[in-house]
Design goal:
heterotrimer; A alpha/beta; B alpha/beta; C alpha+beta; B: 5-stranded parallel beta sheet; 37% helix; C: alpha+beta; Cytochrome-c3 Hydrogenase, chain B; 18 helices; disordered N terminus; binds iron/sulfur cluster
Amino acid sequence: MSALPFSELAARIRARFPAVAERMSENRQPWLLVPAADLLAVCQLCRDDPELDFASLCDLTGWDLLRYPAQPPSDAIVVAYYLHSLRHRHHLTLKALAPRACCTLPSVSAIWPAAIAFEREVYDLLGVQFSGHPRLTRILLPEDWEGHPLRKDYAYPAAYHGVPHARAGQWFEDGPARAPAGAAPPAGGAA
Amino acid sequence: MKAAEDSIVTTAVDEFLAWGKEHSLFYLLFATACCGIELMQTGGPRYDVDRLGMIPRATPRQSDLMIVAGTITHKMASRVRTLWEQMTEPRWVVSMGSCANSGGPFSKWSYSVLNGVDKYIPVDVYIPGCPPRPEALIDGVMALRERVRRYRTLGIRDRDPYVVAGHEAPFGSHPGKEREATR
Amino acid sequence: MSSDLLIENQHGERMRLSMGPQHPATHGVLRLLIDSDGEVVSRAVPDQGYLHRAIEKIGECVEWAQFVPYTDRIDYVCAMNANLAYCVAVEALLNSDPATAVRVPRRAECLRVIVAELNRISSHLIAVGAMAMDLGAYTPFLHGLAQREAVNDIFEKLCGQRLTYNYVTIGGVAFDLYPGAEQEIASFLDRFEEEFRRFNQLITNNRIFRERCAGVAPVSAEEAIAWGLVGPNLRASGVDWDIRRDEPYGIYGELGVRVPVGRGYAGARGRVGDCYDRYVVRLLEIEESVRLIREALRLLPPKADKPSDPLGGHQADVGKQLRKPPRGEVRVRTEAPRGEMGYVIVSDGGKQPYRVRCRTGSFSAVGIFEHLMRGIFLADIVTIIGSFDIVVPEIDR
Ligand code: SF4
């Protein structure tokens, strides 16, 4: 019944999974980088270990690293798992990387059913495939939508069912600082 | 004899029908987003649109007026069209709020919001605001009643042709034009 | 009992119903695909996304402060709380680097609590009123709306809007109180308590209403946690967790928030975590909010001349910090009326966010629908939707 600090949480997990790495974001928020191969086992441990007892997955989301000024640059999609223990009242952030070339991660929906909806959303908006998900279909956008809009290289579609978009084919962000490296905005085409 | 004279009112049937329609605009309870809350509050105790003969209906078959209250997305748009088609003629549409008029705060950046419901259905009255106050909604309805009063069921209809801004309607020819041809 | 019903009815006639997106009981544009066997639902699959307005993408396109009006639209029934959640998150990001730290004036913190709790009252009134309306009792809804109008009047004088306030800003609140506001809020609370008693007489103890909610779709504590329910829906299942008390932000830590939990209030047929518990927990939260507002009014420091005064001001200077926020990420959770509203904010040090993610309560509430709506009566679907108090743009964003 006691909250563990991040270092101890990390130590407990790394004792079993040495491939898990401790990381810190630029503004000193600690998190664990979990390799995709270990993800399911680590999540299972997090939920079932009585000292960790992360019964709730408070959030599962992701973002695209394509334009993030990280060192080294990456084109992967981060998927972040925010765990919380209601009994011990401690938190943990896990992250897994899904590179664009093979954008697949194992689904944790068997461990936390809350992930069913969250993973569908990440799939819909960021295009990460979750293997083992019971029904991985688009959740917010229509089934026949093209592209995954929260990716940083998404351009406005030209039209949807005959209704043209006001900004068809434009990039989302303007300005030279944010223009994608080596790519010109597509001429009226979908992403 | 006197009593009989007093009880006969002569009027054109058309005017009588228009008068009836004007005072009983049943509206479809159709709220998608924030503006829907204002629509509800307009029907609520303070603004009480019941006194104008406006009663919310849950099904399009029983309603004369569709108040499009809120954002219409591309996914929703064809459903709006279906609802509009299910309403019995004559039917009217009020577009409430910037979102239904033009996409409002989402028109610039959003990828999924339709820039105005008038791409899919003809609109009679536009009410600006984000959200419009209930007073503005009532004012818009009053403007619509003006229009309803001029509507002729049997005789020559002096109804303005539908004005559709922007693009071609997506489902073949525009519904307004079709109706004009059948008049 | 419910699964027996399903087996008994297996020889009946199967039908598939599409409920929504336009349906008065789905509170907006949620759609449910229902497979039913006579009156018994064998499966109901929610289909959402009819109001997906790309708010998270817009967050990447606009500047930090420009995103606040969009948070209003994420949850328009309690826009103050939605503003607050985002602003608290951005402040946490700025505070993660001492060079850009902001200190919200104390008066602004008190004002935030006052407006957030007022908005919680009006949001819960809509929730319980709409639930009663879905079950056929129209009058309580009108009573709720009448009280909501009174709250709207206060907000309108405060910030000029009735629904989408854009009042809470990064570093404080947009305007100080108007003259006479304290008295007006206090007298509203007194009047409201009276009205609230009447509301309870009218509906809460109504036998028909209670019987229709009792024992319907109970959610156990383990289920609620595993499916990610939050806020009143979680507490109704008997889990004692409120972010205002357990991870306090602003001045909530000083106020001593009392947290009601579900206990099977419906009596003999009730179960912990059924629809009636979810309803009652909201009512108890309204009472708690009234107390919190009184408390915050008592703590309110007198107004200072300078807006950025750390005690009596209402808006700290944040212009410089927002032009160059620290790089990195934060995750902050706040307690909105529909439960946890958590923001994940990623910043690349530019004047726009790199990624804004808003986690909302209704999204996970819809996630559990398919699990709950199995082997129940068709009429109970309306009860369940009403009791979870979903707001569609919160699901779709
Ligand atoms: S016009 Fe404004 S208030 Fe109305 S639906 Fe659109 S965003 Fe919401």
